Every structure is written in structure tokens, then in C-alpha cells.
Amino acid sequence: MNANSFDAIVLGGGTMGSAAAWALSRGGKKTLVLEQFGHIHERGSHGGKTRILRHAYAESPAYVPLVQRADELWRDLERETGNCIFIRCGGLEMAAPGHSHARDAMQSAIEHGLAFEWLTGAEGRARWPMIRIPDDWDLFVDPQAGFVLTEPALQGMMGMAVRLGAVLHEHEPALEWGASDDGAWVRTETATYRAATLIIAAGAWAASVLSELDLPLQVRRKTLWWLAVDDPDLYAPERFPVFIADSDLGQIYGFPVINGLSLKIADHTGGQVTSADLIQPPAVDKESLNVRSLATSLFPGVTDRIVDRSVCLYTMTPDAHFVVDRHPSHGNVVVACGFSGHGFKFAPAIGELAARLADNPTEQTPPILSIDRLLPLDRLDPR
Ligand SMILES: Cc1cc2nc3c(=O)[nH]c(=O)nc-3n(C[C@H](O)[C@H](O)[C@H](O)COP(=O)(O)OP(=O)(O)OC[C@H]3O[C@@H](n4cnc5c(N)ncnc54)[C@H](O)[C@@H]3O)c2cc1C
């Protein structure tokens, strides 16, 4: 094998690229990862330090096996790296009348026989006196939920891949790629690399890297907020869960206080349509009005004083489900994109699925993740 020749190339060394590199390397594949920036950066979709992991999945019960596998792999990664990556503090879904996220999560839990609780507002207030839960809201508790620390997670996955022989080229954008029955290639300013298989995990840049497919992906600017807390101990992970509050203000979610100072909160809905290539201006106060309004009404110990903020990108598909599938024209190219603002928790399971699709021609992706649903009929693979 010459220096520019590999078993697999991963285009994009972010969340799913790091996970794919870890999975490929575990399978003994000599892997090259090409990343246009440094390994962990703020320009894509993995900024902001933490990500919620839920087992009872409101978006569709089809995701439950995937999150169960991801949960196992996150714990393997903790054992292998010796670092804390996942904190299982439990999850609380709160839904105002007429909003269904909590009920949809319960459906998913019932379908998969997951442990859960369904509480009244009074029961919720007794358990979490630091939350002012209205009487008429639905409350769903997912005891398996918690949050992933993104930097140790990404460093861990890529670090393990490199330890197993993967090569990471940072600051080396892929300019062009192609594939034939003999294999795939990627050209950068430095070299043209070849491999038997290629996994494309380009995040918010996926639509341009895969321009031939004309995928209906929409990039959205999202803002994250850290609000000062009066008594941080009250909102620590030992006492306070990750939460989603589904109401007229949006699907607002947040995390326990882990920096001794502030509570991180954001809205999953909305967000200005933008382009991945645009350098995002910093978040401005008026983008936080709904999250601050919810925080001060629901959490008596949380102030509306902003102590930090950041901007991050969602890459939405029209149905908000992911794409993890073979390229319709190239069986040796796998596409992992369109993670629609909820992909991080699944990363190690997505990496594993992408590696299996690349390696095994009989492997099928779950229908909910198929690329066909986003392609015009004339682009569907006739196979
Ligand atoms: C504000 C916010 C909150 C979120 N909250 C949650 C949550 O609580 N729970 C959850 O599960 N998920 C959450 N997500 C979603 C999750 O973070 C994303 O789904 C996930 O990070 C997407 O991973 P990715 O690999 O597609 O993108 P990225 O991690 O951005 O990786 C894509 C990489 O490809 C690289 N790349 C692109 N083009 C090229 C090229 N030509 N050459 C080389 N490299 C290239 C990019 O530089 C980038 O590093 C959230 C996302 C955001 C933005």
C-alpha cells in the first residue's frame, strides 16, 4: 500500500467522521480522515460543549435501538480512554397543553419497553422544587437520559481511531472526489488519495460536497445561551435533569449546571436559514428572548443575565430524519448527513452503521435513514 492509499477515506472529521474513523479502525481498516479545519472547531455542528442523549425518542421509536447501541459505545469509549464522556442525570420532558413531545416520547418508551414515569405537575414540583412546573403540563421522565460532553467524546473517538492506525489530516479540505468499481479517490491541494471505500460526513457542507445529488438540505443558524444561576448547586446534575420544555415558546431544552456558574439553554425550533460557508456573526441578545422568557418563568433560581453564548449550525432534511446510506450511484461510497439538530447522541452507532455499509454490500440501512426518500425518482438506484 503506498502512502496515499488506504482501505477507507472519511471526508469530514467532525462528529460523524470521528465516529466513522473509530468504527473503521476497530474493524482493522487503514483509514484516512480529511478535515478542512482543526479537529474540533466552532464552524460546524459540534460546538457548545454538551449534547442531550435521550432513550425514549419522541422523533420516532425507530431511533431507540440506535441510541441503545450508542449508549453502550459511549461507555466503551469512557472505559478505553479513562475519561468522563456521558453523564446520566435523567431527562425531564415537559409539554404545555396542545404540545406533544412528552407524549411522543412516552409512545416510544412503551413500544420498546423502556423504563419511564408520567407525572402530574404537583408530583414534578415535589421532586424538583427548583422547577416551577405548571399544573396542566404533561411530564415525562426518562431515567436513562443524560448528556454527552462533546470535546472528550470527539477527542476520544478520534484518539482511539489514531491509536488503532488511522491518519488524521487537519486543515486539508477535500476539493473533489470520485468513485468507480475499482475504488474511490479524494483530491486535496496536497495530494490525491485512494481507497476501497469513502464515507462522506461533511455536516453543513454536505449539499455542496454531494452537489450531484441535489439533496434538499437546509442549513440553519442556531444560538446557545448560558444564563447566570443564583444557587448553582440546586441545578447540579445530581439534582437537576436535562430537560425539554415544549410550549408556545418553542422546544426549549437545557442542561444541569456543570461550570458552577450558569445554565445552558437553547431552542430546537426555528433558526435563520444560512450557508455553511458564511462566517456566522456572534449571537445577539434579541435571539435569546424566548429562551430567557421560559427560563425565568420555569426556573426561579435562573436569572436572565447572559454569561456566555455561541452559534452552531443545524443541517435539516425535510422530515428531520438523518441520511446514512450508500450513494445512489456508487456502492462503495457512504453518505452520512442531514442530522437535523439531533444527531450527536447517536454518533458512535452512526459511525458503526456507516462502516458496515461501506464494508458489507448486503448491509441495509434502517428505512428511516435511507437516502432514497430525499431523491427525485430519476436519481433512484435501479438496483
Ligand atoms: C446548537 C446545537 C445543539 C444541538 N444539540 C444536540 C443535542 O442536544 N443532542 C444531540 O444528539 N444532537 C444535538 N445537536 C446535533 C449534533 O450536534 C449534530 O447532529 C452533529 O454534530 C452533526 O455531526 P456532523 O458530523 O454531521 O457535523 P460536524 O460535526 O460539523 O462535522 C462535519 C465536518 O465535516 C468537515 N468538512 C466539511 N466539508 C469538508 C471538506 N470539503 N473537506 C474536509 N472536511 C470537510 C467540517 O469542517 C466538519 O468538521 C445539536 C446541534 C447544534 C448545532
Quick tags:
single chain; 383 residues; alpha+beta; FAD/NAD(P)-binding domain; D-Amino Acid Oxidase, Chain A, domain 2; 2 domains; nine-stranded mixed beta sheet; eight-stranded mixed beta sheet; 20 strands; 23% helix; 30% strand; globular; binds flavin-adenine dinucleotide
Q: Cα distance, first to last residue?
A: 32 Å
Q: Mind telling me the CATH class of the largest domain?
A: Alpha Beta
Tell me the CATH architecture of the largest domain: 3-Layer(bba) Sandwich
What count of domains describes the coordinates? 2
The radius of gyration computed from the alpha-carbon positions, rounded to a whole number of angstroms, is 21 Å
The number of E-state strands comes to 20
The succession of helices and strands, N to C, reads: EHEEHEEHEHEEHEEEEHEEEEEHEEEH
CATH superfamily of the largest domain: FAD/NAD(P)-binding domain
Determine the strand fraction and express it as a percent band.
25-35%
Shape: globular
Number of helices: 8
* Major β-sheet profile: 9 strands, mixed
Class from helix and strand fractions: alpha+beta
Mean of the pLDDT scores? 97
Helix content: 10-25%
CATH fold naming of the largest domain = FAD/NAD(P)-binding domain
What ligand species are in this complex? flavin-adenine dinucleotide
